[in-house]
Design goal:
Layout lengths: L4 E7 L3 E6 L4 H8 L17 E10 L8 H6 L1 E3 L4 E9 L9 H4 L9 E2 L4 H6 L7 E7 L11 H13 L4 E3 L1 H13 L3 E7 L8 E8 L7 E7 L3 E8 L5 E8 L9 H8 L4 H24 L6 E8 L1 H7 L22 E2 L12 E4 L9 H10 L8 E6 L2 E7 L4 E7 L19 E7 L6 E5 L7 E2 L1 H13 L18 E4 L2 E7 L10 E4 H24 L9 E5 L8 H6 L11 E5 L1 H11 L1 H13 E3 L7 H8 L12 H16 L1
Parallel strand pairs: 1-5, 6-27, 8-10, 11-14, 14-16, 17-26, 19-28, 20-22, 26-27
Antiparallel strand pairs: 1-2, 3-4, 3-5, 7-9, 9-10, 11-12, 12-13, 15-16, 17-18, 18-19, 20-21, 23-24, 24-25
């Protein structure tokens, strides 16, 4: 349901923005690029976000931290006030400094355009051909003149009715066949799994009494290192009926793939990891099946995608050699198999399909993203990025594809940062800095007191501090600034984001030069991976026509800030697309069209993999990227221009 929109105007900046009714004023301000001092994360305890409602009305925002006189005058706390209609809001300016400096403040957030899967286009192009379908049959019963075996009767009739010429039955179907035929007057529904190859056989995987052709379902599953997500899909309408996710239980045995590989080598470690991930998957499957209210017997197939390590652990295949040179996976392609054989709580007839991998570190999740976006069918030269602890990079179009992977480290997920955390309630996710007082504006997930910093928040705050001269290009604090928030603690310089009485943890939350150095290393790995891959295929960044971001990370990040620190190459924000969970998208699309299952074999054959550890130029690019945004700032002309503008304003004022 689309929320009603209202226009909020912020004075004295003359900034207006359309926001949804119910949004908080402080989030609306940050989205518009207007700074309001606030360091409690949006919980209303610091009372620094006081604003004046000059016109219109807002809900809430009245607090005991405001005097009765202030309330009667129209003052409210921006973090508590909710948009209920058009309004004009005045932000008190606490400094007499030339207001032009405020006009150079943060621009409205530039986030990637979200690309949704368009099923109507699948139908229009004749591609809505699910790999699984049902056929209702009314067979003539046997008699003395027509006493052929039940299997022969079924196949011969099906060939005539469904134009299927190469058919094959499974033993479980043959076991059920005699009784179901006779108990239901030879009126039955069969489930058919189409072949990937045109010359392959159609597999009959199930037989049901009566007509159940309007009840055919599939499951799409993303097997992530951190999380498991699944969707239940109606193969008649293409709609997702239910979706759910959970943390991968394997986290208990190691947060990253390397630690899990090591655990798998010890005793019954491999069996433990396989049993654990299957347990998580079954829990998620149980939820979506129950939520959708479908009969489990009508689920016909499950399509799964995961990185190479997760895939091998799911199948209880020893992953040891994935981490040892020359980094060889057991296989990149896997045949269809019965889901129940690996312990999934699905009926015996359910066929499992696994996305193929390219190499040890470019797995089926990335291939699924490439297939789901249709990148492999399009002319545009595209850079595809899936950023997490590992960053996978693909460059190409319909004619060619090249890929690589690099270890970015855990900084983007809050690891290696003293107060880092995953994107959960209480994590600082957005940030703005007052250009005069250098006071922070913090917003947390859930609008509660902060307890840490998530990856997107870290990028935004480092970018803002660099642009305003709080940090230099090496990630070191400007110690000459007139603010008590920059201080030295145990020999390390840091900036205080929130003091202990404003946090959930009873301690000051800070960002230190060590934290920033870890972020620079992570962003340097991603950027240098992109540059190395481009160089290896003979292209340059100015030839890239589009960037596709996959993964949860890309949904929140301010593109301008990501480019400011040198995480992403500088490109027009309009040419950046966010697809969300690319692995799940590809699994879902593969459930809906057999065309993808056919195409994926050819795509994996033409995708060239580059091992960065074997590419000499990678280290040169990496060293050059260990600055904000880069040792050659000319590669980031817009950043250079903004930094120069700030310096000019500061020197003038």
């Amino acid at each position: 349901v689309r929320m009603s929109q209202s226009r909020i105007t912020f004075l004295p900046y003359q900034r207006s923005i359309e926001v949804s009714d119910g949004d908080s004023l402080i989030r609306s301000a940050l989205q518009a690029g207007v700074h309001i001092n606030a360091s409690c994360g949006g919980e209303g305890v610091c009372a620094k976000c006081r604003v004046l409602i000059e016109q219109g009305n807002v809900a809430e925002g009245v607090s005991e931290r405001l005097s009765q006189e202030d309330i009667e005058a129209g003052y409210r706390l921006a973090c508590q006030a909710r948009v209920t209609g058009d309004a004009t809001i005045r932000v008190p300016v606490e400094s007499a400094m030339d207001r032009s400096v405020f006009d150079q403040q943060v621009k409205p957030r530039q986030t990637a355009k979200i690309q949704q899967m368009d099923f109507s286009s699948l139908k229009e192009r004749g591609l809505f051909i699910p790999p699984v379908e049902k056929a209702f049959l009314e067979l003539p019963p046997p008699d003395a003149q027509n006493n052929m075996p039940d299997v022969t009767r079924l196949i011969e009739f099906l060939k005539l009715q469904a134009d299927e010429h190469k058919l094959e039955l499974t033993i479980p179907v043959i076991r059920k066949l005699p009784s179901i035929l006779r108990e239901h007057d030879f009126k039955v529904t069969v489930t058919l799994v189409r072949p990937v190859r045109d010359d392959g056989k159609t597999l009959i995987t199930n037989i049901q009494p009566g007509d159940t052709t309007d009840q055919t379902y599939a499951i799409a599953l993303d097997i992530g290192t951190t999380t498991i997500y699944a969707q239940l899909i109606d193969l008649k309408s293409g709609e997702s009926l239910a979706e759910d996710g959970d943390f991968n239980g394997q986290i208990s045995y190691g947060e990253d793939v390397i630690s899990r590989m090591i655990f798998a080598e010890k005793g019954d470690g491999l069996e433990t990891l396989q049993r654990t991930v299957v347990g998580t998957i079954n829990k998620v499957l149980g939820k979506i099946i129950s939520r959708a209210g479908v009969e489990q017997e009508n689920i016909a197939t499950i399509t799964m995608a995961g990185n190479t390590t997760m895939t091998q652990l799911l199948l209880a295949i020893d992953p040891s050699y994935l981490r040892r040179a020359p980094y060889v996976p057991a296989s990149t392609m896997y045949p269809p198999f019965r889901a129940a054989t690996i312990g999934l709580d699905l009926d015996e007839h359910v066929i499992a399909l696994l996305y193929p991998a390219i190499s040890s570190y470019v797995g089926g999740d990335i291939v699924a993203g490439i297939m789901g976006t249709g990148l492999y069918r399009e002319e545009e030269l595209t850079l595809f990025l899936d950023i997490g602890t590992n960053a996978e990079i693909v460059i190409g179009n319909k004619d060619w594809l090249a890929c690589t992977a690099c270890s970015a480290g855990p900084a983007f997920e809050g690891g290696g940062i003293e107060f880092g955390m995953r994107a959960a309630r209480g994590a600082i996710e957005d940030f703005s800095l007052d250009p005069v007082s250098f006071e922070p504006m913090l917003l947390t997930i859930g609008d509660v007191r902060p307890k840490g910093i998530c990856g997107s928040g870290l990028i935004i705050m480092v970018a803002a501090m660099f642009e305003m001269g709080v940090l230099n290009n090496r990630g070191k604090f400007n110690q000459d600034l007139d603010t008590e928030r920059i201080r030295k603690n145990n020999g390390v310089w840091e900036y205080v984001l929130a003091y202990e009485d404003q946090t959930q943890i009873g301690r000051d939350i800070t960002i230190s030069e060590i934290d920033i150095d870890n972020l620079i290393r992570a962003k340097g790995a991603v950027y240098s991976g992109c540059m190395t891959l481009l160089e290896e295929v003979g292209f340059s960044m100015d030839m890239i026509e589009r960037i596709i971001l996959a993964g949860g990370f890309g949904s929140y990040i301010d593109l301008e800030k990501a480019m400011t620190i040198g995480l992403l190459p500088e490109i027009d924000a309009e040419r950046v697309i966010f697809i969300g969970n690319g692995s799940l998208m590809g699994a879902r699309m593969s459930s809906l069209t057999n065309r993808i299952r056919k195409d994926v074999v050819e795509v994996t054959k033409k995708m060239t993999n580059f091992e960065l550890s074997e590419t000499p130029s990678y280290m040169d690019h990496y060293v050059a990227a260990m600055f904000i945004p880069h040792t050659e700032i000319e590669k980031f002309p817009k950043v250079k221009e903004r930094v120069a503008a700030w310096k000019a304003l500061v020197s003038r004022n």
